[in-house]
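Blinded run. Sample ID left blank on purpose so nobody reads anything into the name before looking at the predicted structure. Input follows.
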Amino acid sequence: MLRWTITFIIIAIIAAVLGFGGIAGAASGIAKILFFIFIVLFIFSLIRGGIRK
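Blinded prediction complete.
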C-alpha cells in the first residue's frame, strides 16, 4: 500500500511540473487517502501483534 502511495505522489509531482493541475490534484488526493489507510492498518497490525504475544 505504501508503494502505491509513493507512485501516486510521483505521478502528482510529474503532472504538476508539466502543468496538468487536475491530474496532479487527483493523484495527490489519492496518495493522501492511501497513506492514511496505510497508517491505520499499520497501527492496527502493531496493536494486534502486540496482543497476541
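Unblinding after everyone has recorded impressions. The chain has a mean pLDDT of 85.
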